Amino acid sequence: MKRREFLSKSGTVAGAGLILGAPSILKAAEGNNNKVNVALIGMGKQGRVLFEAMSNIPGIHFQTVCDIWDYNLDGGAKKVQALQGHMPTKYTDIDELLEKEKGLDVAIVATPDFWHSPHTVKCLDAGLHVYCEKMMSNTIDGARAMVRAMERNKKLCQIGHQRRSNPRYRYTLDHLINHHKICGTIVNINGQWNRAVKSSQDIKYSKRLTIDSDRLAKYGFKDMHQFMNWRFYRDLSGGPISDLGAHQIDVFNWFLGCQPKSVFASAGNDYFKTREHFDNVMAIFEYDSEQGPVRAFYQVLTTTSAGGGFYESFMGTDATIKISESAASSSIFRESTAPEWDDLIQRGYLRRKPAPPKPEATDGISSYASAAPEEFTIPGVLNKPPHQNHLENFFASVRGDATLNCDARHAFESEAPIFWVNPSALQKEPIIFTPEQLQV
Amino acid sequence: MKTELPEEVIEGSPRPKGVPNLSPETKKFPKFLVPEGTVLLSKDKKVTSSDDYPILGEVAQITDGEKEAGEGFFVELTEGTQWVQIDLEKSSPLYAILVWHFHSQKRVYHDVIVQVSDDPEFKSGVTTLFNNDYDDSSKLGKGTDNPYLETRYGLLVNGKGTKGRYVRLYSKGNTSNEMNNYIEVEVFGKPE
C-alpha cells in the first residue's frame, strides 16, 4: 500500500472501508442520557488494566462481566461494584451473555489472543461496538474476519494499539516528523522490547482456584498451565513478536505511513527450551516509503533486559527520535550537520538537555567517531494510565464526537506484516510480501 | 532472623512511580538480629480488615504462609485507607514484622503504617512502628519513614520488642491502582 493511501486511512481520518451508520453511533448518546452500557469480556490481568483506565472516564455503565474463571469473574464484578455501587450481571459464557443482556452498547474484549476474533465478531454481529486488545488475533484469517465483521455491521471496532492515542506519539509524528521534518530523511528504524528472565517466568496460580477440566476443554485449554500461560502456545497466541512486538512494529508502519515490502527474521528457543514459541526474535523489515528506502530492525528478547527495555528509534539524516511509552526513555538526538533548531526550542517544541561532558580521547579510536549528538527532550508527560487516552478516543467515537485512532482495518494493515515474522524465522528465509499476504 | 523468600517474578511493564523520597530498591534481605527464642507468631492466626468483602481473595491468606507472586496468592481490599489486623492470641514482645503487599510489579504502596496494640480497637496503647504517610493523607499522623518499592524481600519493620497482641497495617492504594493488596504478613516475637 502506498503512503498516501495508507495515511488517508490512518490517524484521525475515518477509514475508506469503514462506513459508519450515524444511527449506530447516536443510539448510545441519545438513548441513555449519554450513558454507555458496557460488557467486560475477559477480566484477567489485561481486562483489569483496561477497567482501571476506564474507571476514570465519565458516562460509562459497566452492565455485565464475562470470564470463564470464577476468580476473575467474581473479582471483576466486585471491582465494578466498588466503582459504581451495584453488582453487574455475571456470565461464564459469552453466547449466553449476548442472548440475555439487553441494552448493551459496547464490548471490551480482553480475552486470550485466540479468542479475540471469535469474541469480537460475535459482539459486532450482536450490534455492539467493540474495543479489542491487540494483537487482533493469533491468525491472519482471524484478524481478517474482525475487519469484515466491523464493516458488515457498520459498527466501531478499535484495536488496543494504545500508542496511537498517546499524546507524545501523536505530537512527535504530526509536529516533529511530518510538519517540521526534524529527522530529515528517515533512513533506518530500530526498536526493541527486551525483558529479563525474571519477567518472563511461567505465571503461577493458587491450586485452590483450579478450573475443572471440562470447562477448560470447552474453552480451548488442555490444562491450567495452558490457561495461565497461553502466550507460550502456538495455537493460542503469536508469541513475543505478537505480545510485545506488535505494539512497536505498529508504530513503525504508522509513522512511515506504509507497509513493509519484506521481512527476514531469525529466532529461537534458546533459553526456554520447552516453550512452543520463540523466546527471542530478531526481524528486519524493508520499506519503500514515500521519502525513500527504509530498513527497520526489531528485536524482542525475553531473556535479557539489555539495552534499556522498550522503545522505537527513528533514525534520520538530521536527527534520531527515540520514543517510548516511558518518558524517561524518550529523547531526540540532533546530528551536528542538521539545521539549527533554535526557533523550535524558543517556541517550546523541543527542550535541550544539558550537554554530557566531553570524553577524553585516550584510546585512539574516538578520533574516528562522529561528534556526540546534542540531546533534546520531547515536551509533555502522560499523566494518565497508558490505555486511558485510547479508550477515551473509543468512547468519544461511540458518542459520535471523534473518529477512531486505530480501527480494525487500519490495525490489520499495520499488523499484517507481523503475522509473517514467525514463518520467516521458521523457514529461515526472507518473505517478499505479495498483496494477498497483507490485505483483508 | 530468617524467613523463606518467594521467587522473583516480575510481570507487566513498570509503572511510573512519582513518589518523593523513595528508598533505594532492596536488593537483598537485610541482616537483622533478634533475641534468641524469637519465633513466627502469626502463621494461620486470625485476620480481620476494614473491608468486609475483599475484591479478590480472603484475608486469611495474609497469614497462610504462601508468599508467591501469581494469581490467587494475594488479597485485594478496596480503595482508600484500609487496614488489616492480625490477632496473635497472646500479648508478646514483637521483634520483626515482614510485609509483602504485591511484589510482581515495581509499585509503591501509599501510607504504609504498622501499629501494635493490646487493644483490638486500636484506641489505646497504640505503638506506631512504621509510618511513611509523609503528607498525613490518611489522617493518622505524619510519618517520617520513606516510601519503598515492593520486592520479593518484603518490608522489614523493626518491632523493637514492643509488647502487643494485635498488629494492624494500613495502606492507601498504590502507584499502579487505587487498591490495597497483601500477599503475606509475618510477625516474629518471643512468646511469654
Protein model, in words:
The complex is a heterodimer of chains A (440) and B (192). By secondary structure, chain A is of the alpha/beta class. Chain A is built from 17 helices and 16 strands. Chain A has helices at residues 3-9, 22-31, 45-54, 70-84, 94-100, 113-125, 140-153, 167-179, 213-218, 224-228, 240-243, 245-256, 342-346, 388-398, 408-415, 421-427, 435-438, and strands at 36-41, 60-66, 89-91, 106-109, 129-132, 157-159, 186-194, 262-268, 280-289, 292-301, 310-316, 319-323, 331-334, 351-352, 374-377, 431-432. In chain A, the strands form 2 sheets. Chain A has a 10-stranded mixed β-sheet with strand order 14-15-13-12-11-7-10-9-8-16. In chain A, strands 3-2-1-4-5-6 form a 6-stranded parallel β-sheet, with helices on both faces. The longest helix of chain A is centred in the first third of the chain and has 15 residues, at 70-84. Chain A is globular, with a radius of gyration of 23 Å. The two termini of chain A are 12 Å apart. Mean pLDDT of chain A is 90; it is low at 1-23 and 26-31. Chain B has strands at residues 39-40, 47-49, 75-77, 82-100, 113-117, 127-131, 155-171, 180-182, 184-189. Chain B contains no helices and 9 strands. Chain B has 192 residues and is mainly β. Chain B is 0% helix and 33% strand. The model of chain B has no long low-confidence stretch (mean pLDDT 94). In chain B, strands 1, 2, 4, 5, 6, 7 and 9 form a 7-stranded antiparallel β-sheet that branches. A two-stranded antiparallel ribbon of chain B has the order 3-8. The A-B interface holds A 45, 49, 52, 71, 75, 78-79, 82, 196, 198-199, 201, 203-206, 208-209, 228, 309-310, 325-327, 386 and B 7-14, 16, 53-56, 66, 68-73, 76, 78-79, 177-178.
